[in-house]
Amino acid sequence: MPERPLKPPVEPMEAKAVTKIPESDGWIYEPKWDGFRCIAFRDGDSMALQSKAGQPLERYFPEIVEALKALRAKRFVLDGELAIDAGGRLDFDALLQRIHPAASRVNKLSVETPAAYFVFDLLADDRDDAAYKLPLEERRERLEDFAQAQFTENPTIALSPATRDISKAREWLEGGMAWFDGVIAKKADAPYRFGERDAVVKIKRLYTADCVVGGFRLSPNGKSIASLLLGLYDDAGLLHLVGFVGSMSAVERERAGALLRPIVEAPGFTGAQPGGQSRWGSRDTEWHPVAPRVVVEVRFDHVTKRRFRHGARFVRWRPDKAPRQCTMEQLLRPRSLG
Q1: Which one of 111, 114, 186, 261 has the fewest beta carbons within 10 angstroms of its own beta carbon?
Q2: Buried residues in 104-136 as b, exposed as e (16+ CB within 10 A)
Q3: d(CA 236, CA 253)
Q4: Which segments in the chain show pLDDT lower than 70?
Q5: Buried (b) or exposed (e) across 248-266, using 16+ Cβ within 10 A?
Q6: Active-site annotation holds for 32
């Protein structure tokens, strides 16, 4: 447990991924934001923002520092999420652009695409340096009082919703609010457990897309296919790399080899291509292009810059789907899984 008073860096309480919202008594539900985790520390005129990884964030989000310093409270530690509104949806790409070495660039973006800070926990305040030791239900009551007294005249800082109503949690998960990409469930009687996952679970909203296989990578021994490189067509008919899938069973890897090895053919992708060495015919080729004939359905959670933010998961082969039907439109209006 951290020593008092709390000072950065600390390990945020984390969440374990599960597939269903827990429905038993004793849970408090919160929406899952698509942003940057941020713990905010204030001690008088001293202000610090810490990322999930323990890195300082204040130089990248000067508007958040200014907004927190404008609060009347002079001492607090808050846990929350930084996010940027892009016309009714959160823009993770805009957040990534903030992590820039040039202060002039950061300052410009802080005006053009200002961030907001959605607070979901209170770890310390003027009343208690160790509020984190209290059960969540008590911390939430304190946070709501704090927010009512501090946030009402500050639109940059907001209280993140919370509920014990399972129907509201399902609404968040099913897409009732475009800003949310899932649900967080926390044990109401648990203290804040730094760096631990045993009191919090997360349930992500998942999507599927049909993608063209534009290439593959081999395992280190060269005997089996390690991953499929996935592509989607744009309006101009160019096939762009959008991600990869490596989560396949041994049977599916064998089938992938049978389908793809006979159709190895350049260029594979005609738009954005995989990074690294990829020159057709070179002995150092790290990936193998194939003719755009094979379609797979994959599962994903987030899209960043027209690519899957994380590795996708294999769902099934789609021999019934024409490759040209696999378009970027799926990333703009993805279909929910289930």
Answers
A1: 111
A2: eebeebbeebbbbbbbbbbbbbeeebbbbebeb
A3: 32
A4: 1-4, 176-178, 276-285, 335-338
A5: beeebbeebeebbeeeeee
A6: yes
Q: Where are the beta strands (DSSP E) in the chain?
A: 16-17, 27-33, 36-43, 46-51, 75-83, 116-125, 157-159, 180-187, 200-204, 207-218, 225-233, 239-247, 288-289, 295-300, 303-304, 307-308, 312-317, 335-336
Q: 16-204 adopts what CATH topology?
A: D-amino Acid Aminotransferase; Chain A, domain 1 (3.30.470)
Token pair 């984190």: residue: 132
CATH superfamily of 207-336: Nucleic acid-binding proteins (2.40.50.140)
Report field, pTM of the whole predicted structure over 0.90: no
The identity of residue 222, as a single letter, is G
Backbone torsions φ then ψ of 295, nearest 5 degrees = -120, 140
Q: What are phi and psi of 274, to 5 degrees?
A: -60, 150
Q: What is the reported pLDDT for 151?
A: 94
Strands (E), 274-334: 288-289, 295-300, 303-304, 307-308, 312-317
Q: Which of 20, 32, 52, 69 is catalytic?
A: 32
Question: Using CA atoms, how far apart are residues 226 and 287, in angstroms rounded to an integer?
Answer: 10
Q: Which residue has the tokens 């499929």?
A: 228
